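User:
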Amino acid sequence: MFKDKLIGKALASADLQITIDRSRCMRMRFNNNECPVCTSNCHSGAITIGDDIVIDADKCSLCMVCVSECPADCFDLKGGEFFGILARLRKMRDSVTWPVLGCKTDAGNEAHEKTTCLGALSDEHLIALNVFMDRPVQLNLTACAQCKNSFVIDTLKDRIAGIKETTGIDVSEKAVLIENKADLRFDEVSYDRRGFFSAIKNLTLLGASELFEKEEVDVIQAYSQKGMPLKRSILNKTIKTVMDKDVAARVLKEYAFTIKADATCDNCFSCVGMCPTGALKSRSDESGAGLLFNPSMCIGCALCRDFCLNNSIFMMQGYSGEHYFDHYICNKDSCMVDTPENADCEDAIDVVCCHGQKAVL
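Assistant: Predicted structure:
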C-alpha cells in the first residue's frame, strides 16, 4: 500500500513529452511520400507535416495514438518499457488474482502497473500481451469516459476486433477492457517484511532513474542510421514465442511483408540506402552481386519500391516462407541466384498497409 502510493505519486509527475525522430518519418526520408497515418489519426489536430514534423503542445492531448500507429516509430515516448511492465504483472500471480494495467494521467486510477494513455497499445502490444501473459489483465478504462481522450476506448475495441478478424486471435481473453468501476477487480498487493524493503529499494532506484532521464541529451538523428521500430521488435519476439505455427502464420499474413525485385534490377542498391530499418542490404561476393531482404525487419513502408528508378521492386503483403528472420536474395532474376521464396509479383500491392491504416503512395 505504502509502496504503491509512493510509486503512483512518482509516476503521476513523470514527463510525458512525445519525442520526434524526423529521420524515421517516411515523408522526411522521401519527399514524394504522402503517408497520412499520424495526421489522420490525431484527434486533436496537433500534428502538421511540412518541411518538418511539428506537434502543437497546446493541442496535443497525449492520447499516444500517433505513437502506436506510426509504423516507423517516428514518435516515441520517453520511459516506455512494455516488456518490463508485462514481467512485473506476471510476477504478481501469487499476490493478486486479477492484475490491473492503468494510465498515468489519473493519479487516483487503481492499477498495479501504470503506463501512458492506453492509446499507446498498438496491435503488436495487444498481441504480445495475449501471448506472454498467463492470465487476463484488466485494462482500467474507468476514468476514460470523463477524459479528453475518451475516444481511446473505441480505438482499443476496434484494434481488438480487427486482430480477431484478421488473425483469429481473441485478444480480449487476456486484455479485458474495464469501463465501469463496479466491474474492476482490484486487490492491493500485500508485502511481508522482506517484500516491503525490496519495494523501498526498487522505489529508490526508480527515483534515481528519473533524475537521469530528466537530463537533456542531444540525440543524433541521422538518415543513414538504421533501426528496428519497437513495435516490429515486439512482433518478432511474439512470433518467436508462439508455439502454434498456424497462429504465427496468420499473424505473418497480416503484419509482415515480402519484397521482390524483377529482372530490371541493376543492383544499384539505392533502395538499401532508402530503407529505414536495414531490411534490405547488398551482397557482393564470389557468387556475384545481389539484393538481400529480411522480412522480419520490413515495416511495409514501400520506400524502396517508390525510390527505385527502374521500378524493379514489388511489395506483397504477408509472408509465408521459411526464412522470416534471415536475409535472402530477393532479386534472383537479375543475379541468377536461387531463392527459397516463391512470392509472385502479380500479388504486388499498390497500397501500403500498416496497422489497418492504408496510405496510397
